[in-house]
Amino acid sequence: MRLARVMLAAMLLASTAVAGVREVELSLPLRPKMAFTGHEKLYIGPFVRENKGDEAGPDLRFDVGAEFERYLRRMLRKEAKFTLVPSVDGLRPPTTDTLKLERDTEFWRELGSRTGADYIIAGAIDFEIQDRSGYKTEEYTSPLDGRTYYRQVMVEQTGFTYDIMVDVYDARSGQLVLQEPLKDFQERPERNFDEFTGMFANLYALENQLIGVFVPRTVKSKRMLFKP
Amino acid sequence: MGWRNVLVAGFVVLLAGCASSGPDLSKARDEMEVGVEAGQRGYWREALFRFERAQKASPDDPEVLNNVAVALEAVGRYDDALATYKKALAAAPKNQTLRRNYARFAEFFTSFARGVKPKGEPNATR
Hints:
Largest sheet of chain A: 5 strands, mixed
Number of helices of chain B: 5
Distance between the termini of chain A: 32 Å
Largest sheet of chain B: none
Helix content of chain B: over 70%
Shape of chain B: globular
Distance between the termini of chain B: 64 Å
Largest interface: A-B, 33 and 38 residues
Strand order of the largest sheet of chain A: 3-2-4-7-8
Order of helices and strands of chain A: HEEHEHHEEEEEHE
Number of strands of chain A: 9
Radius of gyration of chain B: 19 Å
Shape of chain A: flat
Number of helices of chain A: 5
Oligomer: heterodimer
Structural class of chain A: alpha/beta
């Protein structure tokens, strides 16, 4: 009887082991958000700093818009073959109201004819720094009696939120042709963490999405194949 | 001698299973095996060819349909992949592997569809 049980178990195991799955990795293309050929002339900027509600943004040691322009230029030079038109010195948008600025086709057309660009990449940035330090409940096991207790511990953290609206304008008509919102949040385990480093942590996290607006990308994705 | 009867019955059931599968299912299994090998090496056109032959032999098998869908994805025929995943899910709605594959495909396909076709390729395959 024992032998029969063993044989039956072996048969069952064999029948399940025959079928299986195999993992494979696919390289899948992602199209860009804009139908560029890759050889257009692009003008980068201006990126205006936007504040939520009536609250003034934090005083920073750097210009968020200018830093983003510099970063975007460097990234596009590295990843694509666009001709990047030099910046116009002292360019000031007619308004800081981002909604009005989006609709100001005259401003964008004029900027386009001044620079000879095909498209203008501009937008609005909201960069926030939050002191997220505070007391949090933590579970710990006492080495004296081995029991679990809860205690309040002070956790020092700084949060960085980077919210950007990338606008692409047709430089000949001044019309807005694409709007792409990108957002990232990063947390650092330190109070008063350096804001510049925090901002670049946001930008590096957004890099793949940002480049995906302009050029095609490839993503790796895993799938399962059934093997009989 | 009861255990002998049990053993004989087990073998009879196993043999009956093999016999009922017939030459078509055996062929489908062979094609699937070769297709999986090809897919693992990255020869996705060969894999698709094999899986489609397996599908001819066993048209409604969800595992075959899953493999066809994965190969269709790999060669860039995303609309066909979507239709095949749906057919496979209709045949086996609770198959976890199939559902996971479909979820990953749906995530990619949504993002892909949001992009624009490159200039000069108005009829690019989706």
